User: What shape does this take?
Amino acid sequence: MTTSADQGDDLAGKIEAATRKIELQDPDEGLPLLGRVINHIVEIMGVTVLCSIVLVVFVNAVSRYTIGYSFVWAEESVQMAIPWLAMTGVFLSVRRGTMIRVDFFFEKIPLRFQGLVAKLGYVVNIGVLLGMAWASLDFVMQFGGDVALYMEIPVGWSTSALVWGAAGAAMAYTAELHATWRNRDTTGGTVS
Amino acid sequence: MTPLMGAALAICLLCGLLVLRVPMIVSITAAVFFNYYSSGAWAITLPQTMMSGLGRFVLIALPLFVLAGGLMNAGGISGRLFDFARAIVGSLRGGLAHVNVVTSMFFGGMIGSSTADLAGTGSIVIPAMKENKYPADFSAALTASSAGIGPMIPPSSPMILYSAVTGVSLGALFLAGVIPGLLLGLSQMLIVAYLARKRGWLPYAVFRLEEVWRTGKRAILSFGLPLIIVGGLVVGLFTPSEAGAFAVMYALFLAILVHRSLTIRQLYRVLVNAVQLSGELLIIVGLSFALGAGLTNAHVPEFLVKLIDTIVIVDSDYLRLLTMVALAILAGMILDPLIPVLLPIILPTLMAFNVDLLHFGVLMVIAVVIGQVTPPMAIALIIAGKIANVDQIRVLRANMPFFWGILAFMLVAIAVPGIATWLPEVLRD
Assistant: This one.
């Protein structure tokens, strides 16, 4: 029977290598040392939170099925960790320019105006994120002292993630705006 | 300014900022702030409603499924799945194109993200299809469309988001996606079979039972992941987050102990990717709750009900559902992620019309899939076109058979809710 390829073309091996490369590549390659250190610190925070969530949920489920015992604080502790996971993820997305956005219309703007629109975009990002940080700070100041039911710690430990995350993202955008301005980048840099 | 006017301006602001390439998170936050300002609400309502949205327990499943998918991906399952797909359908006419579709169906059951499939598998399969005399635009179009099957087959990130926003059981949603996902894949294979006969494309491999057995043995452990998740949820063994944690442990076991393809350093990289990918989605869900609460206070849902009753002059549930789905498809052409942004706005309207939320969940995921191959966003077509090095318009034209196919499938899925609801009804009773 005629076929378009023989079985030994190792397409499967190439696919495996390509998918692994995408998953495992270092996103900070070529970044200055300070930038790498900042990202690494936030990465460690995020990874710690994620691993803790996996462990707590897994151990709680296993213990419920094996010895019939549930940790009453498990669900609450995981819920309190989620804002930290979310905010560290957002910070890293901002730093690495992978925030979800619509590029289609921006690319239709004449090239000479793109730089200006991108810079205005940075200003909007910084302003809105600082607004979020301020509103979150107000929220933490008013309700952060409430004590969690089972963990018996102030809920501010959880809600303050919104303040740090929004302020951190605003700072990252400020740094990017500064770099774009200094380099006279007309396209708005890598981060939006 | 009336609350409704304020809400309309907030939505205009959201769209305007998105058009100017402002990130989704910032655009929604700005719209929420404007909405609150125009209705006189306090700014701290934003973090308050965000925290309430983030507190949904089903949301914990999102980072866990993302992590499990990343571990499977880095663990090197894609090659095994491709080999198995080749052994099963490679002998059909247009074999490589069929293998492309079936690999996406398998991959969807492990990864739950279409872009991971597209960027990884597509980068090799598209050039290989070109080498095997398939037109470049067709290769890109097929790869983009088949990658869309992923979100339909459990575990699926859009379904987790839908469950978090609506409260519909995640297990039921996962089950509801199985038959539509398989049918969608089958419809794409039918289109490929027709084109292969017309254009004389050759089979890709010879069918041999021993080859199916050999590749099946190598791939079979990978199928344990969707089995754990769906099985655990259906039997009621796990909550969604527990299913996610068990999926992570299983994927770790496979990658480190069985396949021995992941070092500690690589594991760290996969964990970071999962944090980054899920972080932004989680915040968008939190913000969507804030946006939804603001728009509900401004009586937007009541306005939408009146508007749809005005548009749909005949008293027909089918036409009302069709209108809501059309709105979702239109929004999906611009918004990604669609579900957490649109759903809080239309959920009260769906409830007012007594729409079956389980059925609508599957329709929403199909709308997400359509949005990925429809301009202006068409993210899947853009990625595939870049890999194939073909102009976007050519890819769009080549994709038309698949586009009409999925649109026809959507109409059938609207008219016959059983396609989505039958399996959950049978297995959960």
Notes: Chain B has 22 helices and no strands. The mean pLDDT of chain B is 89.
